[in-house]
Amino acid sequence: MTSAEMVLWEKLSGSQLGAKFRRQHPIGLYIADFYCHKYRLIVEVDGSIHNQPEIAEHDKTRQTHLEAEGFTVIRFTNQQIYKDLESVLTTILSHMQHPLSGGGGLTKRIIPCLDVKDGRTVKGVNFVDLRDAGDPVELAWQYSRQGADELVFLDITATHERRKTMAELVKAVARNVNIPFTIGGGINEIADADILLNSGADKISINSAAVRRPELINELAAAFGKQFVVVAVDTKYVNGRNMVHLNGGRLITEIETESWIKEAQERGAGEILLTSMDHDGTKGGFDNTLLKKINDSISIPLIASGGAGSVQHFVDVFEQTDVDAALAASVFHYGEILIPDLKHILKENNIEVRI
User: Fold this and answer.
1) What is the block-wise mean pLDDT of the chain (355 residues), using blocks of 10 residues?
2) Using CA atoms, how far apart are residues 330 and 316, in angstroms rounded to an integer?
3) Of 144, 185, 282, 343, which has the fewest beta carbons less than 10 angstroms from its beta carbon?
4) Helix 339-348 crosses helix 311-321 at what angle (to 10 degrees)?
5) Stated pTM of the model
6) With 0-12 CB in 10 A as exposed, 13-18 as middle and 19+ as buried, what is 156?
7) What is the spatial distance between Cα 249 and Cα 125, in angstroms, rounded to a whole number?
8) Catalytic amino acids?
9) 3-state secondary structure (DSSP) of residue 134
C-alpha cells in the first residue's frame, strides 16, 4: 500500500466503520484499493499518476464497468487523505446506509452451502455416502457470478491441520468472489475465528462448540462484533419436541431447540442457521412450521436450511415463514436449480431479492 492508503486503512481495518473492508481485493479484471462486500462499495485512493490523461481515461472506463455491475465507486486523492481524513470518512459512511443484502433487511438472500472435506466440496446426507461435488473455490466463483447473495463453507475435515487448511481455503475464496461468505467447522476458540476473519471470511459459524461451551458465543461477539457470529443449529423432532443434535444429527442433546436459539441470541449471536435434520436430504421442502415458530420468537436474522428440492420450496419458505435467507447445497451443486432462474421466479411471486 501507498502511505496514503496506509493512513486510510488504519480507519477501515477491523470494521471500525461498522462493516468489513478488504484491501487490494480483486473484482473481475480489476484490483480495488478497498472493498466492502456488504455495501458493494469500492474506495479508491489516487496518487498524482492518476492525473495523467491515459490513466484518467482508464479510471473512467473502469468505473463505468464496475458501476454497470452494481458496484459503487468513490475516489479520493492522496491530499484529501492527508489533509481532511474526517471528511473522507464521512463520505464513505454516507455510502454505507443501505446494504444490498443481508443483515435481516427486506431483501431475501439465497445462499449455497458447500461442505468441504480435504479441500473438495462433498455432499451426502448427514455426512454419510459423501459424493464429490467439485472444487470449492471454482464453485464459489460460479455462484458469485450467478447471483448468489452469500456463501457458507462448512469444513468437515477431521485432521490436526484443520486450522491451516481452512485459512488457505478462505484466502483462495476471498481472492475469487465478491460476495460475503461464512466459514464454519472446527472453530473452538477466539484464535480460530481470528485467523479465518483475517484471512478474508466475512462471518464465522459455530455449532457443536457453542452447545458444549455457550460462553464461546459471548466471547466471539465481544471480540469481533455480533454481526460476524453465526450460530448453526441442527434440530430433530423427538418424542414431540424439537431437540438440538450434534455431530451431523447423530448425537442428541437434552436441549430444546427453541430455548437454545433464544439463549444464543441473548449471548450475542448475530444470525441463526437452522437445519432441520428431519428434512435434510429429502428434497421434500423446508420445515416451514418450525421455521415460522422460531422466526416469530427471535429478532435476529434466521437462515432456513434442510429440504430444498424445487423452486417452489423456496417460494413457500419465504411466503410462509418470512425467514431472511434460504440455504441449499446439492440442488445448486448439481444444477437442479439455477440461481438466476430461482430469483426470477421469486420476483414473480413478489418476494424481494437482489438481481
Assistant:
1) 93 86 75 85 91 87 83 94 96 78 62 85 55 78 92 77 81 88 92 92 93 97 90 95 85 95 95 94 93 92 96 98 94 93 96 87
2) 19
3) 282
4) 50
5) 0.76
6) middle
7) 10
8) 115, 234
9) strand
